[in-house]
Design a protein that fits this description.
The chain is an alpha+beta fold and 186 residues long. It folds into 2 domains: 35 residues, no CATH class; 138 residues, Ribonuclease Z/Hydroxyacylglutathione hydrolase-like (Metallo-beta-lactamase, Chain A, 4-Layer Sandwich). Helices cover 33% and strands 11% of the residues. The chain has 6 helices and 5 strands, in the order H-H-H-E-E-E-H-E-E-H-H. The two termini are 28 Å apart.
Length: 186
């Protein structure tokens, strides 16, 4: 975050990835005002229920999901949405490989989860973890392989973002064009 905020043009770079119709509503001046946990913290240090931190590089550097083990709830952060396509960290050396690693970590939790709460979209039952991982994995693999994804979040049955999500997909393809995808594991 410090590196991002030290670049004079960071707000323009961030705004470029936002849907135009909401970009003016996002308070970018609030970025970086939260103090992060020390690297390697495995549990939320608080008096509430035990919450395991599953850090991964998929969506952004330092991105994490939270597993509330005693309640079998996975708070997936900006992943596993039923309405948004994956948003890999395109500034990473291997954005698609990183995303696939993150998906594998979340998939490994599927048997321990009865509820998944994404940052965007609707809450799902335990089976939703595997379905959403499979859908996101297919999208990322299509991006990696230069294929058009067969994704209901982009097609005629999409229920959200129909006017801007296809543009995000096109922008992702453009940003990834010609980049080696070393490290892309399934």
């Amino acid at each position: 975050m410090r590196e991002l905020l030290s670049d004079a043009g960071w707000q323009a770079r961030v705004a470029e990835g936002l849907p135009p119709e909401i970009a003016d509503e996002i308070p970018l001046e609030l970025f970086g005002l939260i103090t992060g946990l020390p690297a390697g913290t495995a549990r939320i240090p608080w008096d509430g229920p035990d919450v395991r931190i599953i850090e991964h590089p998929a969506h952004a550097q330092g991105h994490a999901a939270l597993l509330i083990e005693e309640h079998r709830v996975l708070v997936a952060g900006d992943m596993l949405s039923d309405i948004l396509i994956p948003f890999p960290d395109l500034d990473a050396a291997t954005p698609l490989g990183d995303y696939l690693v993150g998906l594998r970590l979340l998939e490994d939790l599927a048997n321990d989860v009865d509820v998944v709460v994404p940052g965007h979209g609707s809450v799902g039952g335990g089976g939703a973890v595997r379905r959403r991982v499979d859908l996101d994995r297919a999208y990322v693999r299509a991006l990696r392989d230069g294929r058009t994804p067969e994704d209901p979040r982009l097609g005629p049955s999409a229920t959200y973002g129909t006017e801007w999500l296809p543009g995000v997909y096109a922008w992702q393809r453009q940003q990834l064009a010609g980049r080696e995808q070393e490290g892309s594991v399934d």
